[in-house]
Amino acid sequence: MAVTRRILILNAAAGAILPLTFLRAMTDGSTMADFEFQFTEGFTGQTVTLVVDAEPRAEFLARTKLMTGLANIMPLSLPDGKEVTLRVADASRPETKPVSVTVTVDATTPFYVIAWQDGALDVTSTARRPGYL
């Protein structure tokens, strides 16, 4: 059985309370954290797969909405320090190989912003949840 705790911090500069991270203490003593993979600019219908421990954990078609600049948000609960492979295949160009990037998740920066630019993935991480219109 897992115990969920929400940790909030006060950001004095922004005058807001922000979630720092979500941690779960597992019965075996390990901890799990909630991460968000936010797919933003440049996606035009590519198939995105998130792979953990050689197993696909999520797969979807990503298409950026022009009004918000957001294609999809995929939450995953993972142990801190786990590797996640982001794989993007372009169905409109089946002759090309899928593009892959592997990131090691860090509970201090649980938000990963992924953009598709010139056939490559641009990944940044942040401690604050990005905002969209």
How would you describe this structure to a colleague?
By secondary structure, the protein is mainly β. Helices cover 0% and strands 61% of the residues. It has strands spanning 3-11, 16-25, 31-39, 44-52, 55-63, 72-79, 83-89, 99-104, 111-117, 120-126. The strands form 2 sheets. Strands 1, 2, 3, 6, 9 and 10 form a 6-stranded mixed sheet that branches. It has a 4-stranded antiparallel sheet with strand order 5-4-7-8, with no helix packed on it. Strand 4 (44-52) and strand 5 (55-63) form a beta hairpin.
Total helices: the number is 0
Rg for CA atoms = 16 Å
Q: What is the 3D shape?
A: globular
Q: Helix coverage percent of residues? A: under 10%
Instruction: Return the structural class.
Output: mainly beta
Measured by DSSP, the beta-strand proportion falls in over 45%
Describe the largest sheet: 6 strands, mixed
SSE series: EEEEEEEEEE
Unreliable parts = 1-23
Number of strands: 10
The average pLDDT value, as a whole number, equals: 82
Q: Report, as a whole number of angstroms, the end-to-end distance.
A: 37 Å
Tags for this model:
mainly beta; disordered N terminus; single chain; globular; 133 residues
What is the structure about, briefly put?
0% of the residues lie in helices and 61% in strands. With 133 residues, the chain is mainly β.
Write the layout of secondary structure elements.
Layout: E1 3-11, E2 16-25, E3 31-39, E4 44-52, E5 55-63, E6 72-79, E7 83-89, E8 99-104, E9 111-117, E10 120-126
Parallel strand pairs: 3-9
Antiparallel strand pairs: 1-2, 2-3, 3-6, 4-5, 4-7, 7-8, 9-10
